[in-house]
């Protein structure tokens, strides 16, 4: 059974559904995106979130001071780096925070797979399409993995086989109005259990 991360929650209706269905993690997007929220909105959402659900702040090329301020404020429990942050950035961040650090990686070459294992990040975030396309490279990964889905939940279990899965993540669980879809969350939960 894999853990679930729902990324992109941004309103109280989403939080109500998250509290009801109780995934292990919620991703709060702090970079330019359709699901972006501010620190002020995050503080209100986190206040309404069940305490056993951990928050993962998702950042893209932010200053370390921005990330640490959200950690210190208790708005995020873990950090996910979604941009061009290099290993020196990860190292500097690790010196300032005790939170787990997740980093997005591409998986197209053997060198990239080996870089995942060598990274100072605690957890690697990989796109499910990269894992499907390059299974032999995915098999080289020894680090815990968050598997990012794109709404195509088919064959998730086979993609997870052999990997040290930390969680399955999806931000494609929202309807046309941008509201978290109960039906899609339940479908994903069914696929990963």
Account of the 3D structure:
The protein has nine helices and eight strands. It is 38% helix and 21% strand. The termini are close together. The radius of gyration is 16 Å and the shape is globular. By secondary structure, the chain is of the alpha/beta class. The chain has one domain (4-192): Aldolase class I (TIM Barrel, Alpha-Beta Barrel), CATH 3.20.20.70. Strands 1-2-3-4-5-6-7-8 form an eight-stranded parallel beta barrel. Strand 2, helix 2 and strand 3 (54-59) form a beta-alpha-beta unit.
List keywords for this structure.
about 190 residues, alpha/beta, TIM Barrel, 9 helices, about 40% helix, globular
Low-confidence runs: none
Question: Could you give the order of the helices and strands?
Answer: EHEHEHEHEHEHHEHEH
Overall helicity:
25-40%
Number of strands: 8
Helical segment tally? 9
Short description:
The chain has an 8-stranded parallel beta barrel.
Draw up the topology in text.
Elements: E1 4-7, H1 12-21, E2 25-29, H2 39-48, E3 54-59, H3 64-72, E4 78-81, H4 87-96, E5 101-105, H5 110-118, E6 123-127, H6 128-133, H7 135-138, E7 145-149, H8 156-160, E8 165-170, H9 182-192
Parallel strand pairs: 1-2, 1-8, 2-3, 3-4, 4-5, 5-6, 6-7, 7-8
